[in-house]
Structure formats: C-alpha cells, structure tokens
TrEMBL record:
Pathway: Protein modification; protein glycosylation. The lineage of its organism: Eukaryota, Metazoa, Chordata, Craniata, Vertebrata. The chain crosses the membrane at residues 22-42. This is alpha-1,2-Mannosidase. The gene is LOC106582899. It comes from Salmo salar. Keywords: Calcium, Disulfide bond, Glycosidase, Hydrolase, Membrane, Metal-binding, Signal-anchor, Transmembrane, Transmembrane helix. Disulfide bonds join 465-497. It is a single-pass type II membrane protein.
Length: 648
C-alpha cells in the first residue's frame, strides 16, 4: 500500500489523512491478532511458539518424535529418524531439558481442568503436610508441593523378614557348587569391583563415570540428584558381598545424597534408579536411613500426577513440583513406558509409609489404561495426560512401551498373585502382541516387530530383548494349555536376541536389528550399531536359566562376559562401543549406571544358585533392583512363613 500526501489536505506527521491513518491502524491490529492467533496452531516444537506461549496451561502441544527419552537423548543427532531437535546422548553431551519442552504450571492446570476431567489433582493439593520430621537437614522437604505423603514410618522390618519364604541371600550367598560356574561368578564380581573402583577414583559423587577421560558425568536426567551409580550399585555390591564398597556407598547416601535438588528430572528415571535402588537397599539390609531417604524422595515425585487425568507428565522439577511433558513427545503426551513403570515402586512406598496415596496414584493409571479403548487390543506409546486419549498409534515392546508390559506381570507376581486385574491385562496384552507383532523371519527367527497404525516395522530394539525374560516369568500363570507355548515363545525370542549378538564381530548386540531387506537380526543403519552396556539380553538369559536350567543360557552369558572384557573394558572402567560390527572398536566414554545395577547383577545371578534372591520372594524392578513380594495377610497377621529348612 502506498500513501501519498495530497496538496491542501490536512495530514498527520506521517503525511496521512486521519481516515487513512485509522484504516491503516485497523489493518495493522488485525494483522497482529491474526499472527498471534496463528501461534496456537503451530507445532509446539516451533521455537517462536515456546517463546510466546511458554506458560500456557492445558493446551495439548504437538511435537512429533518417537522412542523414549533415554533413546532420544542417547541417539541424539546420530539418528534423525528418532529425533527432532535433540542433540545429545545420555552419557554424552548434556542436553538442556528446557530447550526440549514447555512447562505448564501444574497447579493452575490442575485447578482449571479438574472439573471437566474428574481428575484427582485438587485432592492432592489439599492433603495435609507431612507429619514426619525429616531424618536430616538434607531430607527436609522444601518443595512447595509437599503433599504430606510421609505419614507413618513404623514399618515392621522384622515381621517383613519373617514373611519371606526363604532367606534373601540363600544358604551361602548363592555360591554354585560347580567350580567352573563359581570361577565365572568370581570373574563377574571382579568386573563389578573394577567398574566400581574406577567410578570411585574418578567420578565419585557424580552420576556416571567417563572411563576414557577419567572424569564424572552428571547429565540431566535426575533433576540435580547425584550419585546415580552409587544408588544403582548398592544392592549389587551387597549381594556380591563387596562389603567395603557397599559401606562406602551407604555412607555416601547417608551423608551426601542431597534430596533438596531443584532440577528438572525424568520421573521415570528417578523412580527406577533412585526410588528402586533405595527401596532394595532398605529391604535387603534393614537400614532405616534408606527408608527415610526414599520416603522423602517419593513424596517429591507426587506433584507430577497433578494432571486432569492423573496420568503423570514425564518431567518434574524436584524443587518446585512443576511438571511438564517432554518437548519431543507427540502433542504434549506422556509415554507409556514411563507412566506405566511406576507401579512396583509406588506400591512399596505405600507399604513403607502406610499411606495409600502412592498406590492410589498408580491404580488410577491402571484404571484409565484398563478402560480406554485399545486398537486391536494394543497399547500405543503416547497418551495425553489432559484428555486421557491415545495421541499416536505407535506400539512397541522396545523403547517407549517396554517396561509397561513388564510391570503388569510383575505387579501380579509382587502382589503374591492377588492382583487379578494386572494379570488379566498382562495376558490380554500378550495375546494382542502375539496376534499383531510377533513375527517369524524367513530364516526362522521369532521377533517382535513394531506397529505404526497397522503397518509393521520389521525392527526389534535391544530394549525389546527383555521380553524373553518377561514371557518366561509369566509362563506358569497363564492358561494351563498355554504354558508350553509361552516357554517356547520366551526361548525363541531369547534365541533371536542371542543371534543379534553372535552375528556381530564383537559378539555384542546392536541397539536395534532388522528383519527386512535381507537382514536377519542385524542392524542395517549405521545409527543402530552401537552398544551401551545394556542388560536386556543378559536379563533374559538369567530368567531363562532360572526357569529352565538349560545350560546354554549360562554359556551365552559367558560369551557376553568375554565380549565385554575384550571390547568394553578399558583402563579405567567399562565403556559402550559405537559399532558392534567393527573389528576395531571405538568407545563412547560412558560407563552407564545400569551396567552396575543390571548387566553385572544379572550376570552374577546367572552364575549363582537359585537361592540367591529367590524368585518366589523377589521381583526385580526394571533397573534390576529387587523388591519383595508383598504378602498382605502375613504382614497384617502374625507373620512367619519363613522356610525353616534354610538358614540366613
Ligand atoms: C534401564 O535403565 C532400564 O532397564 C530401563 O527399563 C530401560 N533400559 C535401561 C537399560 O538399557
């Protein structure tokens, strides 16, 4: 539009007539309104939108991506398919959570949305404050969102011990009688000591060890909490009888684990590693300090559930209690494997505190998942915590979905087989998985494909290899006529996962392997070739060994030990590798904390007798922290089901 000054006509300083100026201003304000309104329709990943609308509340956001947080952060720029705008791997360059996500103010959202959704948000906020004094100044709950969960810490540990069927550490700490197995077990113990000693020397108090550069890594998954490797190692050190190391770890937790952090944490990661690690340490040792710590931490996680549906968001600020969804998660959604992997720990938080709030939180998730319509009986990976609806139809037994299924069967087992709802949900989910995802390759390998709105992606992630173990621990409790079928399925999946290891040059398995374009259990993409000391394949060997005693599982476990020693052991610890198919490996400079809590623990159990943490009494959380079966009637009654034929 061109404005010209007309002779003899009064005009403004800009040379416009009043009416022209008015029309121009009208046009301008219309344009501004239009642009601002358009912001609401932009995907949440658009930076402009985050700048202008960063504090907006209940509007679902739209950010496309797949795979779980761990996977996103790990894959980082390596794999564009998995990533929109996230640049680092867990254990590699740090990623700023703020850049990934938006932060709705939970408090306001809870207030505004409760009526519509019938959620529990407001109830949470009106709970009385904690009656329990914190154990130390470190443990003072400073969060404004303190919801008064710590009500009663008078859990009777002695009674709990009497309700176990067997001594946790067996007759002789599970020492195998066969000399070769014993020697192998000793080797695993030496690996643990080596990994621990190096962590202690170079990264003490940090979250993980960087073994090449000999320093510590903090990362951004734990909201400012430190010592992830220490908390993750407590039970492994204890069951291996590494008592000096265990005592160092315990002392650090007591004196230096500061729970008053104010950072942004993954609810899932803090739960499985810190809550799980502290719970196990308490149940195994009876040290009250672990219980006090875990109660304080558990309470700090509660505000994440203050959403219209009660489905927690993925990220929580441990100080303020503010929570929000991962920036990469589709449409502000929560992730199935994250909100579906809280049940075991939260039930135990209720047990220890005598406060049902934790159980209520996870039962509410269960209720919603049970009720919601499922495409072909399958559970998609993304769910809106605002509407309670699925956001995308991507189903996977690997990243994003995995431990949700694991926690269904384990909830049943941990309830002393009383949680019928979990049982029904697990076996129906497994039926749907078998009907839609389980495939046989041309070469005869059974695998679990991924499902995208009805279309199969013939890929199996390393993470999905836990499912051999999951299927075998549930084999006995399904329909009797299916028992053998489940045993066979578990064996076939474990065999496929072993193939993914044995077909590589290093005899370690890639992050993901495919069954298309001529591939059979091998990675076809460069970005899928790495191995980060993951436990899932070894986890399945351990369960398969316990439930079948087929010696091949111990042999396969030993192959993994040799490969780890040859390719992952470096001068100052263990490191992941970038390409399992390369003859000469390149290390990623990260000793993951789950290597100490899971990989080495499962190997140690594989070479131990079955009475070390007997499966009748213990269920492992998804980070391999053992949690006891809850025998309600025994705990509430006289107690005492202890098998007297065995000794402590
Ligand atoms: C662990 O942190 C847990 O096992 C989790 O469930 C997924 N995988 C990593 C290790 O691979």
């Amino acid at each position: 539009m061109v404005f010209r000054k007309l002779p003899g006509v009064s005009a403004s300083g800009m040379g416009l007539r009043l009416s022209q100026k008015f029309v121009f201003l009208l046009f301008l304000s219309g344009l501004v309104t239009l642009c601002f309104g358009a912001l609401f329709f932009l995907p949440d990943s658009v930076r402009l939108k985050r700048i202008f609308l960063s504090k907006t509340e209940s509007q679902p956001v739209t950010v496309g991506s797949e795979n779980d947080v761990r996977e996103h952060l790990k894959k980082g720029a390596k794999d564009p398919e998995h990533l929109r705008g996230i640049t680092s791997a867990k254990g590699e360059t740090s990623t700023k959570l703020k850049a990934l996500s938006r932060k709705p103010s939970v408090t306001n959202e809870a207030k505004t949305d409760k009526k519509d959704a019938g959620g529990e948000a407001l109830e949470d906020m009106t709970l009385s404050r904690s009656k329990t004094e914190s154990a130390s100044k470190d443990e003072k709950v400073t969060s404004s969102s303190n919801q008064g969960a710590n009500t009663d810490t008078s859990f009777d540990y002695n009674k709990f011990k009497k309700c176990l069927l067997k001594p946790p550490l067996g007759i002789e700490h599970g020492k195998p009688s066969d000399p070769q197995t014993l020697q192998r077990r000793e080797k695993v113990k030496e690996m643990m000591k080596f990994a621990w000693d190096n962590y202690k020397s170079f990264a003490w108090g940090k979250n993980e060890l960087r073994p090449l550069t000999r320093n510590g890594h903090i990362g951004n998954m734990f909201g400012g909490l430190r010592g992830a490797s220490i908390v993750d190692s407590l039970d492994t050190l204890y069951i291996m009888g590494l008592m000096d190391e265990y005592n160092d770890a315990k002392e650090w937790v007591e004196t230096s684990l500061d729970l008053n952090s104010n950072g942004e944490a993954s609810l899932f990661e803090v739960n499985i590693r810190y809550v799980g690690g502290l719970l196990s340490a308490y149940y195994l040792t009876g040290e009250e300090m672990f219980k006090r710590k875990v109660m304080v931490l558990g309470e700090k996680l509660l505000p994440a559930f203050n959403t219209p549906t009660g489905i927690p968001r993925g990220v929580i600020n441990l100080g303020s209690g503010t929570s929000w969804s991962w920036g990469w998660a589709s449409a502000g959604s929560s992730i199935l494997a994250e909100f579906g992997t809280l049940h075991l720990e939260f039930v135990h938080l209720s047990e220890l505190s005598n406060n049902d709030i934790y159980t209520e939180k996870v039962m509410n998730i269960r209720k919603l998942l049970n009720k919601i319509e499922k495409p072909h009986g399958l559970y998609p990976n993304f769910l809106s915590p605002v509407s309670g609806n699925w956001v995308q139809h991507h189903v996977s037994i690997g990243g994003l979905g995995d431990s949700f299924y694991e926690y269904l069967i384990k909830s049943y087992l941990m309830s002393d087989k009383t949680d019928e709802e979990a049982k029904t949900m697990y076996y129906s989910a497994l039926e749907a998985i078998e009907a839609n995802l389980v495939q046989k390759s041309p070469g005869g390998l059974t695998y679990m494909a991924e499902w995208r709105g009805g279309i199969l992606d013939h890929k199996m992630g390393h993470l999905a290899c836990f499912s051999g173990g999951m299927v075998v621990i549930g084999a006995d409790d399904g329909a009797p006529e299916k028992r053998q079928h489940y045993l066979d399925l578990a064996a076939e999946i474990t065999h496929t996962c072993h193939e993914s290891y044995s077909r590589s040059a290093t005899k370690l398995g890639p992050e993901a392997f495919r069954f298309d374009g001529g591939a059979e259990a091998t990675a076809t993409r460069l970005s899928d070739r790495y191995y980060i000391l993951r436990p899932e394949v070894i986890e399945s060997y351990m369960y398969m060994w316990r439930l079948t005693h087929d010696p091949k599982y111990r042999e396969w476990g030993w192959e993994a030990v040799e490969a780890l020693e040859q390719h992952c052991r470096v001068e100052a610890g263990f490191s992941g590798i970038r390409d399992v198919y390369a003859q000469t490996v390149s290390h990623d400079n990260m000793q993951q904390s789950f290597f100490l809590s899971e990989t080495l623990k499962y190997l140690y159990l594989l070479f131990s007798d079955d009475d070390l943490l007997p499966l009748e009494d213990w269920v492992f959380n998804t980070e391999a922290h053992p949690l006891p079966v809850v025998r309600k009637s025994c705990l509430q009654g006289e107690g005492g089901t202890h098998d007297k034929t065995t000794s402590e």
